[in-house]
Structure formats: structure tokens, C-alpha cells
Amino acid sequence: MTTLNRRSLRHSIADGLRERVVAGEFGPGDRLPGEPELARSLGVSRSSLRAAIALLEEDGLLRRLHGSGTYVTDRPLMRNDLSRNFGVSSMIAAMGLEPGTVDETCAAEPASPEVASALGIEVGEPTSMLRRVRTAGGRRVVDETDWCRSDLLSPPAMAAAAQGSVYAALAERGAVVHHGVATITPDVAMGDVALRLGVPRGTLLLTLWQVDSTAGGAVAMVSREHHLADAFEISVYRRGPGDGGEDQT
Asked: Could you give the dihedral angle defined by the CA atoms of residues 160, 115, 170 and 164, in that order, rounded to the nearest 10 degrees?
């Protein structure tokens, strides 16, 4: 069997197990059948099964306890790889969870100093603001606010994108997002953010401030996302000192 085939098999097994967890066949805290029994039922080798389980451990869906067995985690982590710029819904769906949107608010809003600086406009100029709470399997996990120039995306057009992708709406108007630059800061939920996420005040958050630009460098959108810290694992691809010709001395 080739390396590619082995990789495909373990991912196929992992996808099948993930679907069974999402369907409720194995619930949070449940112990999976033993490896020999589970491998027989799936018609795969134990080594392939172990490789698939390792993938689901990395995703935070399963955990192995030495001498006890493999268990479904109570609350799987969603992995947000910041080297890839895609929407929150796509990230949630990639984890096998049902993405949703609640509490949408869209309005014309004067640009704050921070938003104006990012968009390259004057403070107080009109922007289209969309605020919404993103859910994963019914759980509120992200409080997100997006701002665009109103001449690029009007408030009604932005409201129409509330249940879908603002990126897609921007692309339809010729502003295809090519890249984004994100800044991450530790935070706690207070006031309206805590209420919207349905968590106690002081709950740990990871706050992302992101500026999205076209290939030509024009800023298309800025966003602030408050992620529940216990729901996400954030990773970043970092090049080594030998990748780019920097002085390594």
C-alpha cells in the first residue's frame, strides 16, 4: 500500500468515526468499543484504526486514557489554523458541527478611530456594520462584528449576507479577499459580549482583530471576533529562520 493510500484510509476511517459521533451514536463521555472489536466492525487493521484515532485526538474529538480506553470528549475543540483565511462557518463545518448564526444586527455606523484607520477612511465616515453570534452545534462560540465601507457593501447587502458569507458578497462586487492579517489578544467576556455569548462575566476569550485585503492591497473588510477560549485551538504556520535567507547567526 502506498503512503497516499495509507493516508487516505486513516482519514476515511476518521471521517466515519466523526460522523458517528456527530450523529449521536457515541455521546460526550462515552467509551468507544475496544480496538479489536472496533477494527473488526469497520473491517480495517488495528494500526489503521489507531492512526485514525490519533487524527481525532488532534482534533479534540477523542481522548485516549492509558489502561482505560478511548473516550469522546465532552466538548471538542475547534481548530482554527490562522495560516488559512476562511470564514467561521467553514471552520465549524470542517469539525463536523452544524454552523449557525443568531442575533444578527446590521446597520450604518460612523467609523470609529480604529475602524477608520484600518479601512483608510476618515473618522465618522459611514460604514456598513454586521454583528452576529456564530454557533457550533447550537452552542454560541463566536461574537463577531464586521465593518466594510458603505460604498463597497451597503447595509442592506451586508444584512443579506448575514446567514452566509460576507467574503462571497464582497467577491460579487469585485473585492475578492486575497489575504488577511490577524492580531490575537487574550480577553475576558464582559457586558454585552458576555450576554450575547451566554457566558458568565470574566469567561476567557481569544479576541481576533483582522484586516482583510484584496490582491492589490485594498482593504475590503475589518473584523473583531471574540472566540470562547475553551472552544477553540488556534494554530499558526511559522516559517523557520532558514526559510527566507535571514541571517541565522
From this structure: -40
Whole-angstrom distance, CA of residue 120 vs CA of residue 149 = 10
pTM: 0.64
| CATH number, domain 78-235, options 3.40.1410.10, 3.30.420.10, 3.30.300.20, 3.30.420.40 | 3.40.1410.10
Q: Determine the Cα–Cα distance for residues 72 and 75; give it in Å rounded to an integer.
A: 9
Q: How do residues 5-64 score in pLDDT, each as one tens digit? A: 545 788 889 888 888 887 778 877 889 999 899 999 999 998 999 888 888 887 667 888
Question: Residues 7-33, buried b or exposed e (16+ Cβ, 10 A)?
Answer: eebbeebbeebbeebbeeebeeeeebe
How many residues does this entry show for the chain?
A: 249
CA distance 140 to 10: 31
Closest Cα partner for 80 from 245, 232, 210? 232
